[in-house]
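re: ur question from yesterday

yeah so i grabbed the chain u mentioned. its 350 aa long if i counted rite. heres the sequnce exactly as i have it in my notes:
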Amino acid sequence: MSVGFRAVQWNRDKLIYDAILVAGVAIFLAGFVLIALQLHPPKDQLELIDIWIRACGTCAFLMLTIILSIGPLARLDRRFLPLLYNRRHFGVLTFLIAAIHAWLMVWWFMAQGTLPSLVDEMTRMADYTKFIGFPFKTLGLAALVVLFLMAATSHDFWLAFLTPPVWKALHMGLYAAYGLVVMHVALGIMQYERTLLIPAMLIGCFGAVCALHIAAGWRERSGDRGNAAAGDGWLTVGPPRSIPDKGARIVTTPTGERIAVFRDGNEIGALTNLCAHQNGPIGEGRIVDGCVTCPWHGYQYRLADGCAPPPFTEKLATYRTRIRDGAVEVDPRPLPPGTHAAIKCPREAL
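ran it thru and got these structure tokens back, copy pasting raw so excuse formatting
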């Protein structure tokens, strides 16, 4: 968490996450270049630059694929939740690798003294009506601009300035960037590089991202159907023991809102499933040090009233809960953020 937009303090987990991330990128780039040098020794500087262009482009594409896969993987299996931790650093590093890829391309033209031909290629309007010969570099540049906007607004200042809904909508542009990159590859190197490796990578990565999102969406859709309402409109969650200790079960209101019902020992409370930070899925997190902790960036809230512990000021909407006929029920009508609503469950019910 942060107060006044100060940098979040580093800890051991964050250092390990970033160290693995940087090491993985370095190993991939080094391995790609070494293999390329062995298979196709460069005859001049231009061919060496071309190898690095391909290495950085491939690395950025695979990183983008992984970023888009982390969300659905975490929803399908909680063991992937640690990958969500500090994911913004993953995105910023992806932008940096993509920017290096673009600069190397400019350098390649500069080394030949043909930079004006690059500008001419990207501004020749007649070519935009073709399939073969489409100025694919424009698509890559557009994707880079989207990645830059997301990297530049990754700080919490922009989150607060734009508001979470607007900020999240802006960062959904990552999917547009991915589509642009896929077309950039399909209309670019795949048109003149006669190898099955490139289309296999492109189709495999794009297909995996689509399949994971469909699977995660299907599971959530199935879960949304499973909450029955009592005669007075309260939603049935299930027996207290069906709520994992230090975890939550998510129920859905008739209007489609999701409520995270947590249990901490014999204390049961219900909060909105949207984190006040970036609308992250609170219900996919756990109770850590007595506070409900969002799995995205570690923002914490007290289970009893949905308030962040001092000195933080964020508050979540809470919901009334009760135990009737041995089952936990939740009122789908939200209470004002910060309202105390947690209850104590009899020990014999656990």
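noticed a couple things. The first strand starts at residue 235 and ends at 238. also The chain is about 50% helix and 10% strand.
anyway ttyl
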